[in-house]
Design brief:
The complex is a heterodimer of chains A (269) and B (223).
Chain A (H helix, E strand, L loop, with lengths): L2 H21 L9 H8 L1 E6 L8 E2 L5 E2 L1 H13 L2 E6 L5 H6 L5 E2 L7 H4 L2 E3 L4 E10 L14 E5 L3 H9 L5 E5 L2 H9 L5 E5 H10 L5 E12 L2 E3 L3 H16 L2 H10 L10
Chain B lengths: L7 H5 L1 H35 L2 H15 L3 H11 L9 H26 L3 H9 L4 H31 L11 H12 L2 H32 L5
Helix pairs in contact in B: 2-3, 2-5, 2-7, 2-8, 3-5, 4-5, 5-7, 6-7, 7-9, 8-9
The chains are: A alpha/beta (269), B mainly alpha (223).
């Protein structure tokens, strides 16, 4: 093989390698979501505005609620403009996975199953799941649920916990959003409903004539922002922000403002 | 985006998905039969009834055709209990689908009836055929034959539209898909699979309707 031929081959190889490098960008050189947020100065947050007191639509039609307030402050400290992606409870994880949002902040309770699909940041609040019904409905122990229709909402913590605690013979009825589950309870299509303690209070307060009362405590849980798997930079920035805002009292003040309750100590992981 | 698809999760839940699809098929087929029967009655009432009946039919058709299906479902499921009429989710779904299809089919049938040559009906009258026989053989049957393709389209639309009855907790294909995606977080996989199932069901219904058309109108030479 002459030197000339060898040189030609080397050039050809180099060209091939360059083309290959252009066609398949290395993952190391791919921009992380955090970099993208900082470059575009825009944070897309998936929120659920049908879930008081975490996410609601205010009287002016703007998103409001404890999680929305957290999202706004987080974006502000990130130096980014906030863009809300409003999703139903069933869309909180899919919207994130589909890349429609950078982070979901919508009272998503930490569960092992959810962590298989997305990555949890540290908790920013706590909630309880309760089963409630009009006074006349006799439910004192879980065994009383047998033969009763219990309304739950898809893609919520109650969907993950109520079927496990309810005895066989409980007639569980699924709805797509809290508004439908609430309506089913108020219209008598279900005997009882399972929601967060906060949602229960909102339903009971808005419908005093139904004499809704708390029947059973299902579970208590912590909820936090979620990001896609592998988004460690973004998760770490959010965790840092959560640490700072636990220390300066912002999270506690926001929680108190919207729920009327004191924020319990938030564990970290 | 580097999303890894896990279609094996779908296979794990195949029985539930097929059960949901089966309810979709049952609800749709029943609503097609009942809705068409309703439409035949209203079409007859509109042709032969007194003015108030004609207005009533027109009001029903316009009310249903100019309001969202989802709202109609909510009214039947959530609002009727206040009047003492409590329907289970599946019953409410069937009622809503029947009432909805009935209105559209009434309008489609009207088009078919208006397209009939007047002389045909007059000839039947001149021959002394009873009124019901005229409606059945001279009006309804040829009209149905004319508008069958439009009816078939409406039937398919109804089947696809049945996906919204998941909102009132009827556990049909979309409801099962939503539950599974929300517990497994495999939204893409389940929605893709549901899309395929809906497509297969739509093609299946189209084929079945084609067979019905052939059996009803072509096998026996009616005209």
């Amino acid at each position: 093989m002459t030197m000339k031929k060898l040189r030609l081959r080397l050039v050809a190889l180099a060209v091939l390698a360059a083309v290959a490098a252009m066609l398949t960008p290395h993952s190391a050189s791919a921009e992380s979501t955090l970099d993208k947020i900082l470059r575009e100065k825009k944070l897309r947050v998936a929120i659920d505005v049908a879930n008081p007191p975490f996410g609601v639509l205010g009287k002016d039609g703007q998103p409001d609620g404890s999680d929305v307030a957290v999202a706004r402050q987080l974006a502000k400290d990130l130096g980014a403009e906030i863009e809300f992606v409003q999703v139903p409870s069933t869309g909180r994880i899919p919207a994130l996975l589909a890349g429609r949002a950078d982070v979901t902040i919508a009272s998503i309770s930490v569960t092992a199953d959810r962590a298989k699909a997305v990555m949890f940041c540290n908790p920013n609040g706590a909630l309880s799941i309760t089963i409630f019904a009009p006074q006349a409905v006799a439910i004192k122990t879980p065994a009383d649920l047998v033969g009763k229709r219990v309304g739950i909402t898809r893609a919520t913590l109650e969907e993950a916990t109520v079927p496990k605690m309810a005895p066989a013979g409980t007639n569980i009825v699924w709805f797509d959003d809290l508004a439908s589950t609430t309506q089913a309870l108020l219209s008598g299509q279900v005997d009882a409903a399972a929601m967060t303690g906060f949602a229960e209070k909102a339903v009971a307060d808005a419908n005093p004539d139904k004499h809704i009362e708390n029947k059973l405590l299902v579970t208590t849980a912590f909820y936090g922002p979620i990001v896609r798997h592998d988004e460690f930079e973004l998760r770490q920035w959010i965790n840092t922000w959560l640490f700072l805002n636990t220390q300066n009292g912002f999270l506690a003040a926001t929680y108190k403002k919207y729920t009327g309750l004191d924020l319990p100590p938030l564990p970290v992981f | 985006m580097n999303y890894v698809f896990h279609f094996n999760v779908v296979l794990d839940h195949l029985p539930e998905l097929l059960e949901g699809a089966w309810l979709t098929i049952r609800l749709s087929a029943m609503a097609m039969v009942l809705g068409l029967a309703l439409a035949v009655v209203t079409a007859y009432a509109r042709m032969t009834g007194p003015a108030p009946v004609v207005w009533l039919v027109a009001g029903y058709v316009e009310l249903i055709r100019n309001t969202p299906f989802l709202v109609q479902i909510f009214i039947i499921y959530f609002s009727l209990p206040a009047l003492g009429i409590r329907l289970e989710a599946n019953e409410a779904a069937l009622a809503a689908m029947t009432v909805n299809l009935g209105a559209y089919a009434t309008e489609i049938l009207r088009a078919g009836i208006e397209a009939l040559p007047r002389g045909q009906i007059e000839a039947a009258k001149a021959l002394g055929l009873p009124r019901l026989a005229i409606f059945r053989y001279v009006i309804l049957f040829p009209a149905l034959k004319t508008v069958f393709p439009a009816l078939a389209s409406q039937f398919i639309l109804l089947m696809l539209g049945s996906s919204v009855v998941s909102a009132i907790s009827a556990v049909e294909l979309t409801a099962v898909t939503n539950s599974l995606q929300s517990t497994t977080f495999r939204a893409f996989e389940f929605y893709f699979f549901a899309t395929g199932l809906y497509l297969a069901m739509a093609l299946g219904f189209r084929f079945a309707l084609g067979v019905i058309y052939w059996a009803a109108f072509q096998r026996r030479a009616w005209n």
